[in-house]
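Incident log, structure service

09:12 report received: a user says their structure output differs between two submissions of the same chain.
09:20 pulled the input from the user's history:
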Amino acid sequence: MGKSLAILGAGSWGTALAVVLAQKGHTVSLWSRRRKLAEAIKTCGENRRYLPGVAVPEVIEITDDLEKTVFRAEVIVFAVPSHAFREVLRLVKPCIGDKMVVVNAAKGLEEASLYRLSQVFAEEMGGTLERYVVLSGPSHAEEVGRNLPTAVVVASVQKQTSEYVQELFMLPTLRVYTNQDIIGVELGGALKNIIALATGIAEGLGFGDNTRAALMTRGLAEITRLGARLGADPLTFSGLAGIGDLIVTCTSMHSRNRRAGIEIGRGKSLAEALAAVNMVVEGVRTTRAAYRLALAYSVDMPITEQTYRVLFENLPPAQAVKNLLQRERTCEIRM
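09:34 re-ran on a clean worker, output below:
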């Protein structure tokens, strides 16, 4: 039996989720902060701004009325950028009932507090996470919306809650796994964007597959180090939210972070690169937050550090590569 779902955020990911969840027979409402975008999606039958070429069925309610969107919902899916998560959560907080499940599909860290988004949720909602689920994994909206085979993971502190969402989201072309390591799933989804920026920068400099493989492998090592320090299960980073998402984000031109990195490697400033991508690049804010976390917890994250210096201290990208290659000798496997 279909459920009533409110999807908050009519970007590419929110739109793709609305499309596939409606296919399963759920009653889906898609909220856009901007009325003009909501009207354009209804008029065109697709989200030409964020997900062109993917038909948005008429059965999906498109609205800019937030209260109307969540009032009837049994499940709320947050598909807003991570920096907007707290703001939107505060707006809908009065409407979130005790039995309502909240699914967060954003991948990032809150820059001011350095919180994972589940920590933001717990702080705003009085410490409870029993009805909170994070959705992550290698899942470009452009492919999910076209029903190309995809596997993702959902994590919650409550096994029965993650299994409930697993059943809601499972489709013939969308396989959903469960995981109880909410810390690792959140960190994997957020931190891989930093490495995607770094591999994009290397590509923009003209480097090849060896460089990308080195950055991805060593990037996974530093993601795992920070994750373990913050309480995650290191094995989580060998799964969909870790290496799976890292692979797709570092190798696909659907990746905004990779594309922004390429522009920077070719000589553009951060502002120029973001303008060229013309969508939210989550890895930029995440780099700043992760750099501060690494310092606070004394975790060695050399790729994150050099990416930070390129983005925010005007370090030439070529010099960042030299800095990485000329570090002191060390062993490969360490925590």
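09:41 both user submissions now match this output. Likely a transient worker issue. Closing.
09:42 reviewer note: The beta strands are 4-8, 27-31, 46-47, 51-55, 61-63, 75-78, 101-104, 132-136, 150-155, 174-179. The chain has two domains: 4-180, 183-325.
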